[in-house]
């Protein structure tokens, strides 16, 4: 186990200890000062600060490097969200190797994708979104090193109330539960030369590949879903320097023929590659 992985595990364990102490203090009144409950959480973040500063455990990339050019992982008309073309880290954090990650949603036509609503409906079914079930393709000839699709697809979080629940409650629980619950169903491809591609939030039961399989560029891997820490059916795509998002650092990418779309940009990936059945 790497030092970075150990740090992540200890950090989560101390945060869980904090939650347990708060609950125990509330229910049992053990007799010690209430502020003692915060010792584990203080230790957890103190550990991160010390190791990030002096121990080489930073989540940010080690050094700048040229983007790796790969094929787009889909065909058709899509829109970009949380794009590294607008800022890095694109998702506001380097954690889970998200520095250069991008989210994309299917937009086959104007108005085809339901928009955000302040109050109602609180949530929508996944089949209301054109991205749900869209085929996802290998971006290069590669080897499958991770393949998970046993998690459920939850409803959308595209209203204010649902989004608050996701950000305040669900996201924290998923983060404490580990990277698998954050990325949901996912595939990781080894592209060679120390570069790995992560496809996150895949549809439950949609994988067409297994760990150890060799795939070719354009081959279908799975379908777009809404599992893990996700607001609506979409693809979260990123390149990273190891197969484990918990300890990896992000690598910049560019899609052949498309570049890196900016936030809100609608673009079309041509259907010229052969898709596996």
UniProtKB/TrEMBL annotation:
<feature type="transmembrane region" description="Helical">
    <location>
        <begin position="12"/>
        <end position="28"/>
    </location>
</feature>
<dbReference type="InterPro" id="IPR050570">
    <property type="entry name" value="Cell_wall_metabolism_enzyme"/>
</dbReference>
<dbReference type="InterPro" id="IPR016047">
    <property type="entry name" value="M23ase_b-sheet_dom"/>
</dbReference>
<keyword id="KW-0812">Transmembrane</keyword>
<keyword id="KW-0472">Membrane</keyword>
<protein>
    <submittedName>
        <fullName>Secreted peptidase</fullName>
    </submittedName>
</protein>
<feature type="domain" description="M23ase beta-sheet core">
    <location>
        <begin position="178"/>
        <end position="242"/>
    </location>
</feature>
<keyword id="KW-1133">Transmembrane helix</keyword>
<dbReference type="GO" id="GO:0004222">
    <property type="term" value="F:metalloendopeptidase activity"/>
</dbReference>
<feature type="transmembrane region" description="Helical">
    <location>
        <begin position="34"/>
        <end position="55"/>
    </location>
</feature>
<dbReference type="InterPro" id="IPR011055">
    <property type="entry name" value="Dup_hybrid_motif"/>
</dbReference>
<dbReference type="Pfam" id="PF01551">
    <property type="entry name" value="Peptidase_M23"/>
</dbReference>
